[in-house]
Automatic annotation (TrEMBL):
Signal sequence residues: none
PANTHER family xrefs: CUPIN 2 CONSERVED BARREL DOMAIN-CONTAINING PROTEIN, SLR2101 PROTEIN
Designated name of the protein: Cupin type-2 domain-containing protein
UniProt organism field: Aspergillus brasiliensis
Family matches, as InterPro entries: Cupin_2, OryJ/VirC-like, RmlC-like_jellyroll, RmlC_Cupin_sf
Coiled coil ranges: none
Amino acid sequence: MAPPKNIRPLNRFITTHDPATQKAIFSNQLSEEMPIQQIQDSADAQFSLAYTTDTTPANLADDADIPAYASYLSNPPGITISTGSVCRIVDMPPHALSPMHRTVSVDYGVVLEGEVELVLDSGETRVLKRGDVAVQRGTNHAWRNVTPGEGQWARMLYVLLPAKGVDLGEDLGGIGVRAST
């Protein structure tokens, strides 16, 4: 798959506090460049793990959340973390269609670049354009890049939070990532 032409590499800036002054500063514990995880069985999408927490509420004491996130960079989580949050950027190749899938989570999906069709297992669809938001509430769905023009990638930002109440379980539909923890 050719690299994306219409979207740029991303950076992630993590803030913390200067222990001496208590003023806000940028953390230097991790590179600002977000690594890309190529997802094979998911229409060749590229995932970038912008941030994770493994507890709710997040434990910010002594920057405990930063090394926890760093461990997920070397050993990526499933789609969700059942005790914390996931912020992920997904780049979708032209005309890509993800597998139909469901997670036990509330997901906020925001289109950053391009146009993306949200497909539900009922057959209903909606086209999201830049800035539009989808709220996924544990439902079975797929994503399709419908960006006009030849060779145009789409980019989405997702924030995934643990949920309870709908007991249908997780169904990854063949997405090439491990089961959620």
